Amino acid sequence: MSRRIHKGALHALEQPVIAYLTPRIPNDIAPDQLSALSLFGAILAGASLILCRISPWFLLSMALGLLANWFGDSLDGSVARYRRRPRPRAGFLIDRCGDILSFCIMIVGLGLSPYLSLRIALMLLVAYLIHAIYGLMKLVVDGVQYVGLGGVGATEIRLVIGFWATLSALTGVDLTAREAGGVAVAEWICGALLLGALLIFARRVALDIQRLSDLDAHPAGKRYANLRVVRSGGALRAEAKPIEDAGKDSNSVAPVS
């Protein structure tokens, strides 16, 4: 099971809430049902944002959808671990696929709402997907799952979506219609956010490549190919061929993490 490192600014505040709610989830509610609730909440939030073109009262159902998305996403894994029925592989796949699909739906929904243009929303979606994909790459090479970046995680993104839509509706200020230098103010703001995200991404990649190159050069950092886990004498071990010997017949043994 991978180690998780949370980078979200609100993680310390929401953890006591999650710890309080986890043992109070009824036993007949399975973690997969919570994951389904999370996806349903994203669909509700995204659809409500689009329907705000008809009436701003749909912001209420948007808020309910964001809450359901947070509730299901935050508690599905916690409930599984609390009940001692974790599924490190299937559970991880369900969780990550659900997260990516959920945020695609909600961000595109915001772009199709009266509060943000689709072009700007897609810029933000690109930034989110870049860091989500790189987080999965980090999991492969380091065995560490990073949740959030620069203080911005899933909870913070949900709050930004809800805050932006609500503030735009209450104030009546359309930043997509206001221009500065011939460019919409919202595009300046989101363009700066995208540029910042890309710069952070480039810095992370450069530092990780340097660190991993040092590990590859060190004997302890030898990489293996054709990895497989086998049982020997009641214990598990990983048998693999080193990359430089992948074409030879002899096998080497790599430790199981």
Unreliable parts = 223-230, 240-257
Largest sheet: 3 strands, antiparallel
Cα separation of the termini = 8 Å
In CATH terms, what is the architecture of the largest domain?
Up-down Bundle
The count of helical stretches stands at 7
> Which structural class do you get from the secondary structure elements?
alpha+beta
**Overall pLDDT level:** 78
CATH fold name of the largest domain, please? Four Helix Bundle (Hemerythrin (Met), subunit A)
Short description:
The chain is α+β, with helices and mostly antiparallel strands and 257 residues long. It has helices at residues 11-21, 31-51, 59-82, 90-111, 118-142, 154-171, 185-217; strands at residues 3-6, 144-147, 179-180, 183-184, 224-232, 235-242, 252-254. Helix 3 (59-82) runs antiparallel to helix 4 and helix 3 packs antiparallel against helix 6 (154-171).
Tell me about this structure.
The protein has 257 residues and is an alpha+beta fold. The chain folds into two domains: 3-217, Four Helix Bundle (Hemerythrin (Met), subunit A) (Up-down Bundle), CATH 1.20.120.1760; 223-254, no CATH class. Helix content is 60%, strand content 12%. The strands form three sheets. Strands 5-6-7 form a three-stranded antiparallel beta sheet, with no helix packed on it. A two-stranded parallel ribbon has the order 1-2. The chain has a two-stranded antiparallel ribbon with strand order 3-4. It is flat, with a radius of gyration of 22 Å. Residues 223-230 and 240-257 have low confidence and may be disordered.
